[in-house]
Each structure stands twice: as C-alpha cells, then as structure tokens.
C-alpha cells in the first residue's frame, strides 16, 4: 500500500495567510482515529452513490467491508475509483479529510484476520468477524473487504487558521 511519504502542499488559494501545511503523520492519525467515513462510488449509469461506513486505517490504506449484493459493491465491480471522507460537521473547528483512490479487494485470509482484529479493536466486539475463503463472516452473512491506498488526500483545517493541505502519492 502506501509506504512512502507523499508530496505535501498547502493550497494558499484556500488558506489563511498564517496557515501551514498539515504534516502527513497528523493526517494519518486522524484517519486512524475517525469512526465514521462516507464513501462515494459511481453507479453504472454514472450517477453518484454515497453512503456511510466504518473503516480501518492499516498499512497505509483505508479498509472497508460491504456485502457482495450492496450497491457500493456492485458499483465497484464496474468502477473501482472511490472517495472516502471523514471529519466534523462544523464550520469553524475540526479537520476534514478527503481520500481519493482505487478500491482493491483483499482476499488473503491471513491479511483478513489481521484486519478483522483491527476492526474489533477499534469498534468493539459487535464488529467481530470470522475469516474464511477470502471474506469476513458475521452472523449469517459474508462481506467483501477492500483496501484504498490514497492517490490524493485533501485536508481542510477549520477555524483559525483555515487551511487546505494536499498530499499526493506516487
């Protein structure tokens, strides 16, 4: 996944004069701590689809899961480009992040067990997954797991000073 430092730039067009670029380790910490994300995918007819979900930051990528019949999974079959967002619903405090990348299916059971442990550590026992045959299993259903290594991330510092940082990978 993402194993190198990105190119970091403060966009002065959208930042206060006193703002500085947010360091990537701070953005990574915010991604790891965030409880809720919104994923944007593209429907077969080109219309956007947006829905909330849980995600885990691990090994330089955001990971999420979804049932194979859910709209986002069906959208990803045709177009793997996604945007994941997280932050606060306030204007003048907090920090928002927008992660752009490609959703890649994770099927290795060893890696899935690591991710299942990370899910449970972050969200509690209600999110306990068994792993078999390249899927998460929970109750009577199974879920596909995807990794999104960022290509570009945008960070929006809100409050004094307002600032917009962009991190580019690759």
Give the SSE map.
Layout: E1 7-10, H1 24-33, E2 37-42, E3 48-53, E4 56-58, E5 61-66, H2 71-78, E6 81-86, E7 95-106, H3 109-123, E8 130-132, E9 135-138, E10 141-157, E11 163-168
Antiparallel strand pairs: 1-11, 2-3, 2-6, 4-5, 5-10, 6-7, 7-10, 8-9, 9-10, 10-11
Quick overview of this protein structure:
This protein has 170 residues and is an alpha+beta fold. The protein is built from three helices and eleven strands.
Specify the CATH homologous superfamily: Electron Transport, Fmn-binding Protein, Chain A
Number of separate structural domains: 1
- The name of the CATH topology is Pnp Oxidase, Chain A
* Straight-line distance between termini: 11 Å
| Structural class designation | alpha+beta
What is the makeup of the main sheet? 11 strands, antiparallel
- Low-pLDDT runs: none
Strand content: 35-45%
Principal-axes shape call: globular
Instruction: Kindly state the number of beta strands.
Output: 11
Q: What is the rounded Rg?
A: 17 Å
The percentage helix is: 10-25%
CATH class: Mainly Beta
CATH arch. level architecture: Roll
Count every helix, treating DSSP H or I runs of 4 or more residues as helices: 3
Following the backbone from N to C, one meets helices and strands in this order, namely EHEEEEHEEHEEEE
Mean pLDDT across the residues is 96
